[in-house]
């Protein structure tokens, strides 16, 4: 893919996300005028997975811009070129968190919204969050990620390593929102409040399996788009194995 096109896409996407992120911090406050750290009580905006992912996605595209100018975009078929540490981190970050968590945010938000929006995005928020910002946080994630996967090759880590990172993140967030419910008596998502304990447990387990499925989906999309590059990596591993034997 043309390197100029990649740079333009990364710069444009980062500018959109960073501008939206700054607007979110400065302009979006609850009905009591509280901002980032105190928005709707204990934990502020850091209660919400959407906000966590907003930080993650903005950081990721910031890294892609830095990598475009200071790192590398080397594919396995390009022999003799060194892969920078920044590129390796970018690829691992996308595979383990940026893609699966982003798809999870979109699917769960709009899925629950379609059933009963009050369980995930009460109508009262329409007066606080403008529609365009809501779509930046919950909709444009998908096209941004799919274009990124299409125009840039990413080397996926071993599945075990990738899933451990993703599930570690998911469990960290789960512990965080359960602590908020226990300590501050605030259920971050109304749907968790209306469920019975056993229903809540089943719901959480299903979501963890969804995380795993989305990681595997990311792998599959990468294989579909970059099968030839992946075959180069595989053949090199086979040759190295034969040399060791």
Radius of gyration: 20 Å
Q: Into which percentage range does the β-strand content fall?
A: under 5%
Mean pLDDT: 90
- Broad shape: globular
Count up the helices. Answer: 9
Total strands: 0
Q: Give the biggest beta sheet.
A: none
N-to-C order of helices and strands: HHHHHHHHH
First-residue to last-residue Cα separation: 37 Å
Low-confidence stretches: none
Multimeric state: single chain
Helicity, as a percent range: over 70%
Helix and strand composition category:
mainly alpha
Please characterize this protein's 3D structure.
It contains nine helices and no strands. Helix 1 runs antiparallel to helix 2 (about 50-70) and helix 6 packs antiparallel against helix 8. With about 240 residues, it is mostly helical. Helix content is about 70%, strand content about 0%. The chain is globular, with a radius of gyration of 20 Å.
What brief labels describe this structure?
245 residues; mainly alpha; 72% helix; globular
Short summary:
The protein is an all-alpha fold and 245 residues long. It is 72% helix and 0% strand.
Fold topology:
Layout: H1 3-27, H2 49-70, H3 85-116, H4 131-138, H5 141-151, H6 159-184, H7 190-194, H8 197-225, H9 227-244
């Amino acid at each position: 893919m043309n390197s100029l096109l990649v740079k333009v896409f990364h710069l444009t996407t980062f500018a959109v996300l960073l501008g939206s992120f700054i607007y979110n911090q400065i302009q979006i406050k609850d009905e009591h005028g509280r901002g980032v750290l105190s928005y709707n009580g204990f934990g502020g905006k850091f209660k919400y997975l959407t906000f966590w992912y907003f930080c993650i996605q903005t950081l990721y595209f910031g890294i892609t811009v830095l990598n475009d100018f200071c790192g590398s975009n080397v594919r396995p078929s390009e022999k003799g070129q060194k892969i920078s540490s920044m590129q390796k981190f970018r690829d691992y970050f996308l595979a383990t968190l940026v893609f699966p968590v982003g798809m999870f945010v979109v699917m769960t938000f709009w899925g629950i919204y379609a059933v009963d929006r009050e369980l995930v995005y009460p109508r009262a928020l329409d007066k606080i969050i403008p529609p365009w910002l809501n779509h930046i946080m919950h909709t444009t994630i998908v096209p941004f990620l799919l274009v990124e996967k299409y125009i840039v090759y990413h080397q996926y880590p071993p599945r075990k390593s990738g899933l451990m990172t993703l599930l570690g993140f998911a469990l960290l967030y789960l512990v965080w929102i359960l602590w908020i419910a226990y300590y501050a008596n605030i259920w971050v998502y109304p749907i968790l409040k209306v469920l019975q304990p056993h229903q809540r447990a089943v719901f959480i387990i299903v979501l963890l399996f969804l995380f795993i499925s989305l990681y595997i989906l990311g792998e599959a999309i990468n294989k579909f788009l970059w099968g030839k590059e992946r075959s180069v990596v595989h053949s090199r591993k086979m040759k190295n194995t034969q040399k060791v034997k």
